[in-house]
Queue: 3 jobs
Job 1
Amino acid sequence: MTATISGPAPSVHLQGHAHEADLETCLDFVNTESYDDGVPDEHLAVSQDVIAWFEEHGLAHQPALRAQAAAGGEVWLARVRTVREALRAVWDAEVEHRIPDQAALDTVNGVLREAPRIELVAGDGCCGVGHRHSNDDATGEALAVVVQPLVRAIAAGETGRFRVCANDGCRWVFEDTSRAGRRRWCDMTTCGNRAKVRRFRSRRRTGHADEATGDPVGDAAPATPPA
Ligand SMILES: [Zn+2]
């Protein structure tokens, strides 16, 4: 009985073009604003950047997304960035074991309400799983799909390896998949090495052994001093 499903001109799509995201995709989205020595580097500078990002990740039907972007202009772009900012705020709060700002929660919850609905559909002699678009907010639907993996991780209590790069000028978000679970930097060859150079110099200045813990690399001098 399909008549129970309402909404403006809905369309059902079988999995196979499923708009699905994993936590990595979610983090990739957050990191579209990266930092270099604390200076933001905006990878979603114009609407087309957002459309291309969603396209790369197979997260939206392009015509609907493009139409919304064209109609919304800067407001549309700002909405996408606001969701990204809220995701970072939630991630940071999880890493720091504190409650995020209510505004961030409200923003995330706002897009969750736009999530495409999962449903069973009659397939070829069996059931298939499809999803139904409301077709009135393709952007909200795509954002919801990006947000969902983070919500699922929190629901499952799987936040113990959420990390933010220990370099304050970087703040790259990532999940620590190392065996020991002691990864602190986005990348040892950049941020990790930079931190090491600082400690090495500070040791030489003070003549004291460095007591920093959690550095998986050891105490040898860094290979490449920073520029
Ligand atoms: Zn970093």
Note: Residues 165, 167, 170, 172, 185-186, 191 surround zinc ion (CB under 6 Å).
Job 2
Amino acid sequence: MPLRPKIAVVGAGNVGQSAALFIAEKELGDVVLVDIVPDMPRGKALDILEGAPVGHFDADVRGESDMGAVSGADIVIITAGSARKPGMTRDDLLEVNVKVVKSIAENIKKHAPESFVVVVTNPLDVMAWVTKEVTGFDRRRVVGMAGVLDGSRFSAFIAEELGVSVKDVSAMVMGGHGDSMVPIVSCASVSGIPITELLPKQKIEKLIERTRFAGGEIVKLLGTGSAYVSPAASAVMMAEAYLKDQRRIVAASAYLEGKYGISGIYLGVPVKLSGAGVERIIEIKLTDGEREMLNASADAVREEIKKVKL
Ligand SMILES: NC(=O)c1ccc[n+]([C@@H]2O[C@H](COP(=O)([O-])OP(=O)(O)OC[C@H]3O[C@@H](n4cnc5c(N)ncnc54)[C@H](O)[C@@H]3O)[C@@H](O)[C@H]2O)c1
């Protein structure tokens, strides 16, 4: 990895600009923020650069409106496309965002053939699949960001409910990034103490329900657009794991070839994220109920993929 890796963030909207800011603040590398809208990405990049002396970070951040700017990128984070409006599900974004992600994936294949790609655009699991299909990259080099965010949301709610530090809470959410997501209660703990020992069943059910609809809760409150700070932080965490070969175990949307009895689609599962990308998919024991939910989630993703014409 070069001393100053090149990180391309495609889509200079809410998630994209926040991701660029977090990357620069963490000094993970130099950032190019790319958007089809002319000038706007340059403005957003300049805004970050002009805060660098105050924020005390060294990073080159520039904005471009031509996809050729991803040339030679070590990592590409795809955040381009429409976001949800109140009343919309993530799946309502399918048609418009397939076109966007397809054209971006073609450019990544052409200009950044060695890159590791983190997909953020919704509907997430389908967009990750489109990216892999179009780039033809190995499954280890295309990953979707959802589980890190959903797990973070579940953790935040557990910490709030118990009145404990978020630093001590660990939680995992598997399945598709939609209403069919599968929070795994057996993997939720506070400093290793299972939450089932700390919270009654009904309370846990309430937190699961809130996690499942956490994105929608924010969409409703914002009135326009969807969550972007926590999604950007989650995508950057995954990029950092790759760049620094951190070997983190997180839930992410990964291409399945038989694990959990599922093949040919992207779905949220525990993975080992390292300098090799999605180095390994970890198969954990699920309860009958969790397995049923995971299969239903896989069916939902499969149905969406059927609608895609590449
Ligand atoms: N995976 C997750 O957990 C998660 C979380 C939050 C948001 N999202 C998704 O991320 C996407 C971006 O959300 P946002 O809030 O930043 O939206 P946004 O509307 O603020 O920004 C999207 C940007 O993409 C740009 N764009 C559109 N087509 C493009 C193309 N072909 N090339 C380059 N840029 C292009 C637009 O001009 C716009 O600036 C949405 O699809 C949203 O649903 C996913």
Note: The longest helix spans residues 288-306.
Job 3
Amino acid sequence: MTAPRCTLVPTHERPDLDEQVETLFSEHWPEFIFHDLGVKPYRERRAEYFADLDFWGLDADGRLVGGCYGVPIRWDGTVEDLPGGYTDALRRSVEEHEAGIAPDTLVVMGAMVRTDEQGRGWAGDLLLGLRAKAVACGLEKVIAPVRPTLKSRYPLTPIEVFAAWTRDDGALLDPWLRTHARLGATVLAPAPRSQTMTGTVAEWEAWTGLALPASGEYVIPDGLALLHVDRGADRGVYHDPNVWMRHL
Ligand SMILES: CC(C)(COP(=O)(O)OP(=O)(O)OC[C@H]1O[C@@H](n2cnc3c(N)ncnc32)[C@H](O)[C@@H]1OP(=O)(O)O)[C@@H](O)C(=O)NCCC(=O)NCCS
């Protein structure tokens, strides 16, 4: 395994970098990602309780190349005891922390690489760095609800089918799943409802840039699955699917 080329620093130690973030990373996420109602009640407490698991990645010259963060939970190592996905891991980490339950597992919640540095292997460095931080904190297990970036091209395909697709060389088809796998992570289970976004029809039209004139299912830009629209109830529901992988 090659030594990481980037250094992780807790984001709270470098507030001066916050300004760069919007220009370097802002285009990464579709708007609907920010409308998971299950995240809101826990977001601020997550940032407060687990600030030391929230990092910027800097290159050898101290330049910002990416970011990553995780949350700690107690997990017994079985598929049955996995959180339902991203949002459930967030909830569980905060509630367990407040209940005084000692964690033993890091859940990698996200990683991003600045747009002009993608495809150069920084993501692997970030994950290795985060793994090392977990071990240093006494978290012996490391898991991740991985959001497969290529899945948006296959929104009709069930996540459990997509997660198993491989290339001719045997490597996983999805580049982000593959990056995790290259670091030794294995697929544990699909998380078909890792996040749930709910909104009115007008909100979904604004978030997706699409007219949604009838009830039914829609392929939406950057959606990994279909949007379900019920015009009678004035409601659209989307479940973002992820894949649970285990690093350590
Ligand atoms: C996903 C992400 C973190 C990968 O970072 P990265 O440093 O570019 O990753 P790597 O350089 O290690 O590349 C990983 C693989 O993805 C491929 N890849 C990288 N950027 C790509 C892009 N824009 N489009 C398609 N494939 C890409 C690489 O070719 C590589 O595949 P390989 O196995 O054939 O070598 C980065 O693209 C990103 O920040 N995306 C937006 C945020 C996001 O989706 N995060 C993941 C969910 S939390």
Note: Helices lie at 18-25, 40-49, 86-98, 122-136, 159-162, 175-182, 201-208.
